[in-house]
Here is the input.
Amino acid sequence: MVDILIEFILAEIAVALAFWIIFLFLHILLMLRKRVLVPLVTVSVDKAEYSRGEKAVISGKVTENGEPAADIPVTVKVTDPADVETDLGPLTTDADGKYTIDFPIDPAALGGTYTVEADSLGVTATTSFTLSMRKRERHGVRKK
Here is the structure.
């Protein structure tokens, strides 16, 4: 009788142990499963064409899996037609994942196409704008 009781107890322990091994295995698999983040970075300017001396407003948004990414560093740079880069300094997204910075255009800047790049979370977004060759108004008279 004692032998049967011992065999029964050992069988119950084996079943319980098998259950816990399976449970722990599944738990470890779930913990090791990496969450895949899909970052998205956007960048835009407030106008397609500017004149010398104006200010371009550069803005964009950073999201992860479609949700706003707050307090994320963003690097923005502007490249002129002569391939000279201007780093606009470190930016950080707000609570809505948005960032904005002003880019004052030098009165002596080269005319042509300027490229704007925003980098964050390993993703780069680009846009461009044109700096017009037209002269700015002086004393109310427009020069051509």
Q: What stands out?
A: The domain at 39-131 is CATH 2.60.40.1930 (Immunoglobulin-like).
